[in-house]
Amino acid sequence: MLFFILIALVTFGHFSFVLFLHNWFYSKPFPRLLGDLIQATHVLFGFLGLLAVYTLTIKVEAFIKDPCLNLLSNLWVDYGLFCLFVGGVLLPINEIFRNFWRIPINFYIQQSRHFDYANHFFIKKKSNFLNESFKLEVVLAEISTHSLPTNSTLKILHFSDFHFGGNDNYAYFHFVMAELEKEAYDFVFFTGDLVDDVSFLRWVVPLLKKIRAKYGKYAVLGNHDLWNKPDMVRKYLRKAGFICLSDQWFSVEFKGCKIGVFGTGYPWFSTKLPDTSSGDYGIKILLTHSPDEFFWAAKNNFNLMFCGHVHGGQIALPFFGPLLIPSKFGRRFGGGFFSHGGMIMHVSRGLAGSFPLRINCKPEVTILSLVSKTT
Ligand SMILES: [Fe+2]
Description:
By secondary structure, the chain is of the alpha/beta class. The chain has 9 helices and 17 strands. It has 2 domains: about 100 residues, no CATH class; about 270 residues, Metallo-dependent phosphatases (Purple Acid Phosphatase, chain A, domain 2). α1 runs antiparallel to α3, α1 packs across α4 and α3 packs across α4. Bound molecules: fe (ii) ion. The site of fe (ii) ion has 8 residues, from loops.
């Protein structure tokens, strides 16, 4: 029994380590080809690592029979022992602290509207019962803050990661945007990865122009936009009424409160974190593509941060959650609301992906009502 637990921990440790490498490398601003190459080596390493498990099994069995054997003489055994440490010690610690920064759902008022477009005549051919790529969850959240003027509310629509072309089903996006057009917002934030193929930029204006926002629609670009003519992406976003922010503030006056929206393309469009010190605002909002700037944003006194990039992992296991979260923090910021140092971050699961497959991970948009705190 103990032997099987040992093998299970080594196997868990190995795959956790491979997953950590995958997520960490994919959070870095490598050129796409190099990134893909690194991912391929991880898949190879994933299978090769099973040799460590096998070798450790043989060696431990031999060691039980002859305790004089030197276990540490074999590279695979050394790696197997490292995996045992990862699976038996680091993994449980990580799981305990993984949700440390997450805001519990009952802490803010949250309702969800669910839509299923998979059976629609125009979409049906591309759906199946497991794939949730053509469903939609509209999250309605409410958070109170002392930063807003008394008796006021800000309604913010946040969406991300459309990957036009990766999901090439125009009808799906048409249904989603038609739903969102029914309401008017104070702010609309788009946090990157508009296209996977520049020829799909023709979708941007017809799909996004009608979305209304009293104080403006703002966008930052993502890594997939960088790989697909970012100047063209910005041009089409502007045509659809968006203000594209590249390491700059945009100031809005709201009932006597000065709201600053800062957008950055770091780390894909700039090599160092931007200087945000010039912003003297009552409320500071940060738009980035990745959640990796969470602690930096809190340290720089932002009140709110919006990002996407991680797609909720696209496949989430029951109980265990998503595995593939391209972030230097691994699976910590897979989607939802997080808080640190008085700042609140929303990580969008996005609307699509380069590959239209989602299991237990519906596409999502969030409508956040920020209300003034009375006490
Ligand atoms: Fe993305």
